[in-house]
Amino acid sequence: MSRVIQIGGGVVGLCTALLLARDGHEVTVLERDALEPTDPGDAWDAWQRRGVNQFRLLHYFLPRFREVIEVNLPDVISTMEDAGALRFNPLEALPAEFTGGLRPDDTRFTSVTARRPIAEAAIAQLVAATPEITMRRGAVVTNLLARDNGSEVPHVVGVRLESGDEVRGDVVIDAGGRRSALPSLLDAIGARPVVEEKADCGFVYYGRHFRSGDGSIPALFGPLLMQCGSISILTLPADNGTWGVGIITSARDSELRAARDVGVWERVVKSYPLAAHWVDGEPLDATPIVMASIEDRHRAFVVDGAPVATGVLAVGDAWACTNPSVGRGISIGAIHAVALRDLLADGPQDPVELACRWHDATLASTEPWYRDTLAYDEGRLAEIDALLDGRDFEPDLEFEMVQALQSAAGKDPEMLRHTLEVVGALELPEEIFSQPGVAERTMAMGGDWRTNELPGPDRDSLVKVVRA
Predict the structure, then answer these.
(1) What pLDDT, in 10s, does the model give residues 232-281?
(2) What's the mean per-residue pLDDT of the chain?
(3) Buried b / exposed e across 292-321, counting CB within 10 Å, b at 16+?
(4) Distance (Å, rounded) from C-alpha 17 to C-alpha 21?
(5) Nearest in space to 409 (alpha carbons), one of 434, 436, 432, 379
(6) pLDDT reported for residue 52
(7) In the beta sheet, which residues pair with residue 379?
(8) Which of 152, 290, 309, 325 is the most interior residue, by most CB within 10 Å?
(9) Strands 203-211 and 242-250: what pairing?
(10) Considering only CA atoms, which of 63, 146, 100, 121 is closest in space to residue 240?
(11) Which residues partner with 133 through β-bridges?
C-alpha cells in the first residue's frame, strides 16, 4: 500500500482517488476550492467551484466514460443515476428508419450524463464515505517538497500548503485539471523544464441550461453537436429533466460576440430548425455563460528518455487538455486514471522506472485520443475561419474522412454507428477506417459533405439574424 497525495478533486480527480483507494492505497486529496459540496439535488443552486471555470458550462459524459467507470467503479454510475443523471442512448431516440432498428450491442452507445455540479457532488458523496480517502478542501498547494537524493533529477516526497502545513507521501498525483501549476512547481525545485505545447484553441462558447416541466428532454432531430457552417450548436441532455444548449464560434467571429445578449442568442438558436425546440423550456441561466481563451495544452514529463522529476505523476487535464466542444476530456481522464491505478498496483518501484513507465502508459492509453481531438479541432477551426474569410477550405485527409463519415451517418445505419463510435470516444477514426471497406464506403456515401449541410441560415443570413 502506498501513501498517495493527490492535488485536485474534480470529477477525474475524485474517480482517481476512488480507484486508488479501492486498490489498497491511502489517499489524501488536496482541493483548493474550500466550499464543501452540497447534496446533489441542491448542487446546481448552492455549490460554487471557482477553481473550475467550466463548472456551470455545458457538460456531457460520453459513452466511453460510462463504459470505463461502469466496469471499474460501478457505484459511481449508480450514484449519479440516484442523483437524477440521465441514461441516454441516441439510437433509442432516433426513428428506426435511421437506425435500422436496435441491435443487442447498441447498449455500448449509452451515456450516463448530468450537469457538472450534480455529477461531481454525487461522486463526492462516495469519496466522503471511503475511509481510505482523506479529503481536504481549501488546501492550496504552493510548493513541492523534494528530497536530496544525490541526483540531478529531484525526487518529490510531498507538498507544502498555503497554510504552511506539509503533507508527505510515497507519490504525488497531480489531478489539478486545466489550472494545474505543475511545471512552475517543478521549476521551483530545480527540475529540468517540462516540454509543454500550448496554444489558445480559438473557440468561444455561449451556453445556457433549461428545464422541462414534466422531466422530459427535447426530441432528438439531429446530432448533439451540429456543425452549421461558421458556428456549431450543442444540444446536450442532462439530469432531472434539464439540458444544455451552446453556440460555439471562432474567437475571430466578431459578429457572433453579440450572442452574449440573451435575445441574440435565442434568435440564433431558433434559426436552426433541428435545434430551435431545445430553447422551449424554463431557462436556468438568465443570460448566456461565456467561456473563451481555452487552451489546448500538452505536457511531457519525460524528456530525452529521462524524467524531469520523480515521485510526481500527472493525470487527466493536468497532463493534457483540449477544446471541450467534443466532450472527451472526462472520458480521456477516466481512461488515464485506470491506467494509473494499474501502474501503481505493482507496488513500490524504482522512482525513475515508475516515471518512465507512466510516460509509456500515457502514450499507449491516452496520447492517441489527445492527438485525434487536437487534429479535429484544428480542422474545424480552419473550416470556420475559411468561411469567415470567404475562401475555399482544403482539409487534410483525416478531417475530410471524419466529415464524410458524419455526413454518411444520416444515410446508412452502419455509418451512423461508426459515427457514434467516434463521437462517443469508443473508437478512434483510424480504427474505424482500417476496417475492410469502411473508408471506401464512407467516401462513397459522405463525400458530398460540403454540400450536404444541416438546415439553417447561410453566413450572410446568420449575420442578419444576429443584427436584427
Answers:
(1) 999 999 999 999 999 999 999 999 999 999 999 999 999 999 999 999 99
(2) 94
(3) eebebbbbbbbeeeebbbbbbbbbbbbbbb
(4) 6
(5) 432
(6) 84
(7) none
(8) 309
(9) antiparallel
(10) 121
(11) 27
Whats the size of the chain, residue-wise?
468
Q: What is the pLDDT of residue 148?
A: 75
d(CA 209, CA 237): 10
pLDDT of 347: 66
**Beta-bridge partner residues of 145:** 158
Enumerate residues 6+ apart whose C-beta is below 8 A from 22.
73, 130, 132
Please tell me the predicted confidence (pLDDT) of residue 228: 93
Percent of the chain scoring above 90 in pLDDT: 88
pLDDT at residue 323 in the model = 80
User: What is the C-alpha separation between 427 and 439, in angstroms, rounded?
Assistant: 15
Rounded to an integer, what distance in angstroms lies between the CA atom of residue 376 and that of residue 372? 6
Contact 182, 314 (CB under 8 A): yes
CA 227, CA 235: separation in Å to the nearest integer? 12
Residue 358, judged by CB atoms within 10 A of its CB (0-12, 13-18, 19+), counts as buried
Average pLDDT over residues 332-361: 93
pLDDT at 21 over 80: yes
Strand ranges, E, within 182-330? 195-200, 203-211, 225-228, 231-237, 242-250, 282-283, 289-291, 295-300, 302-303, 306-307, 312-314, 320-321
What span, in angstroms and rounded, lies between the C-alpha atoms of 288 and 76? 30
Number of H helices, E strands in the chain: 17, 21
Nearest to 405 by CA among 453, 445, 373, 451: 445
pLDDT band at 314 (very low <50, low <70, confident <90, very high): very high
Set out the domains of the chain in order of their start, with CATH numbers.
1-199+295-389 (3.50.50.60), 203-291 (3.30.70), 395-454 (no CATH)
CA separation for the pair 299, 116 (Å, rounded): 25
